[in-house]
Amino acid sequence: MDTLLQHMAGQTVSCSDGTSSTVSNPAASTTGAPVTGQMVLLDMFFPGFSTFSAFVQKNLNIDLNVYIPLVLICGALTFAWQYFSDYCWDLIDRYMMSVVDVRTDDEIYNMLMGWVAAQKFAQGARRFVVNTNLNSRFWWLWRYDYDDEDEDGTEEDDHVQSTKGGKKALAYTPTFGSHWFWYKGRLLCFRRQQSRDMAGYSLSSEREEISIKCFGRDPWILKELLLEAREVYMKRDEAKTLIYRGTTKGSGSEPTWQRCMARTSRPFSTVILNEKVKKELIDDVTDYLNPATRRWYANRGIPYRRGYLLHGPPGTGKSSLSLALAGFFKMRIYIVSLSSIAANEENLASLFSELPRRCVVLLEDIDTAGLTHTREDGKVAAIDGGSDDMVPGQITAGDGTATTPTPSGRLSLSGLLNILDGVASQEGRVLIMTTNHLKKLDKALIRPGRVDMIVEFGRADKEMTAAIFRAIFAPLEGDEVDTPSDADSKDLFKTPSISTSPAGAAAAEARRELARDEATLKVVELADQFADKIPAHEFSPAEIQGFLLKHKRNAAAAVEGAEQWAVDTRKEKMEKDLREARERREKEEKAEAENKGTKKEEKGGKDKTETKKSKKSSKHNKVTSKKSSSKKSTRKAAISDADSSDDSTSSSSSSSSTKSSSSESESESEPERFKEKNSKRKHSKKEKTDITAPPPLLVKEDTIRVQVVPVQQEVQTIANYIAPGTEKTDDLAKAVVVVEDILVPQISVIEVNETRSTGSEDGKDSGYGTP
Ligand SMILES: Nc1ncnc2c1ncn2[C@@H]1O[C@H](COP(=O)(O)OP(=O)(O)OP(=O)(O)O)[C@@H](O)[C@H]1O
């Protein structure tokens, strides 16, 4: 090759166009130095080498060609060394080192990375990865917001460069590659690399492989390190309640428990509930969690489970108590809302099988659609051929007798019961179920063994209201207390209240203590005044707390605004209820109209001659009066005809009455209809069985008109419409209405100051109220 190139250089080549040219080396022409074939080859691999070599030779008089073999030998040696060392490392790795691979889709990843970020080698790394969240990229291990603690930077996470003011903290971990560090006198290697296996289906941030190596065939040091990492991780959460939520991400993915938060444990004392009930609950759980109790259960073959049912209106503290309980016993809490779409039998079973042995499981909203029907209802439905009426999620018989198949993908009662105490269900957990409607629950769901204790939560009474007030305004440790004594003391000592001398500090502490006591006394006094202004059993603790939080820095202002707030809130709630009732009624009327349309079509040509609407209407009214033989059904018809929301389970008489009213409503406006009916009722006393007038007024007509509207509303809601304080007039009647049976509404006044039912002028009970 060398000779060939030398031979070619300087030769004349004939071209096709008749001209001739001489082959010469360009480098030679520029520098004038002879160019060897070796050079040409080297030029191919290292462009510009010949020029460089010629330059060196010209200026330094060194012929680089002499060193070329040397360079080649060095290259070969390096290559060989690399190969050899890789081979040796491979051997050492395989036979003389211990390695632990850390799964990135497991919680240990979060633990280890938290530990690594705190190590010197990570903080001093020249190439590193910066994170605001050290946790695994896998969604079920992802913890939003880095929990609720780190923002003030008071935690022990020195490695996390947190900044005050709600900014995200930064954490640094070594980048991809091997990083050597010393741990307990042993040299270890932290290795982080990108995984090629998962390239097709995961995000690049998810494609990680983490391992730690140590020399020696005994991996004890690695295990020790992992245990330490876990301990540090757990310690951070020691004073916290870890909250997990059952979740499925996207369709088709496996349900799993996702850690969603670690909240500072709520002290039990902050949940305002009857002290006796609270104590009973704590004693019961304490006894249950005692290892001796576990053995006791096992020896007797009784399933080791305990269930609690918390019921009451929204915002009365059910979830708060569950969280406080979990925090008190240092257990994790696993929450599933049965009203969520994903809460089907399969998902729930899968979630329950993943539960740890000792934990609190909170099943929220067990009064959810599919579980409100009783097992007996299910049977009746089957016998009546009522399967058509079953709604998605309707129960199947819990005793194993199939009624109608539960639509797939929805939770059935029997399914839930199986999950709660079937063979596969976990033992050792504390089950808490919450509901807003105890009466709707199937007895099978709350029988002893499934529910061992039922705790009722109610709207705030006077004592509770005062307690909420105290809880919010009473100064606690760490709170700043401004009192005149503070100012006095400053004058006295002529120094700021924070003194550096021990005597000064003690005096400042004593002053603070005194100020706190004074403030506490004042708060107790204000709490009583506040409680006097809030009507008992009308507002939930959450509502009261919401109002107080608006004045959290000014207790006196809260007391001052209490009355007005109560009036406004009541009005708001009333309007909301009325709006909802109206919407519901409209919806039902629409559905009924559609239904009617379908029926008409079915009747075909029969009704073609009867086209006039008025005739149809009178016919319906006749039917109504015939069917309305009982007083109760007449009342119901009247109420549902007025402004009430229709009861879907109403009898045929009621529905025909509703039909009549709906046909009327097509042509008349609501107030006109009410007026007309009112006058009808007044002038024809005998038409008692055909009352289609609006509900009666329970108070003097000239003071306030009270319409008892929604039959389906909760008792308390109805009572709110006419509760004392609705309007500040002296002659306002006080009344509480009790709806005893929502199918056949029977309203009776149980507390009346001055009441006159305008529905019955002859002094007899109109059927709506008892004066
Ligand atoms: N009995 C109570 N003691 C202390 N705080 C309460 C109480 N009831 C409600 N609260 C406060 O009201 C808010 C809502 O309470 P919580 O979520 O526990 O109510 P809930 O009964 O579970 O409501 P829902 O039925 O809607 O789930 C919380 O901030 C809580 O602090």
From TrEMBL:
The source's domain of life comes to Eukaryota
Q: Which reaction does it catalyse?
A: ATP + H2O = ADP + phosphate + H(+)
Membrane topology for this entry?
A: Single-pass membrane protein
Q: Which organism is it from?
A: Neurospora tetrasperma (strain FGSC 2508 / ATCC MYA-4615 / P0657)
Compositional bias (Polar residues) spans? 9-31
Name the SMART domains for this protein.
AAA (SM00382), BCS1_N (SM01024)
Q: What is this protein called?
A: P-loop containing nucleoside triphosphate hydrolase protein
What does the entry list under GO cellular component? mitochondrial inner membrane
The organism's lineage is: Eukaryota, Fungi, Dikarya, Ascomycota, Pezizomycotina
Locate the AAA+ ATPase domain: which residues?
304-461
Q: Where do Basic and acidic residues bias regions lie?
A: 576-612
* UniProt biased composition (Low complexity): 636-664
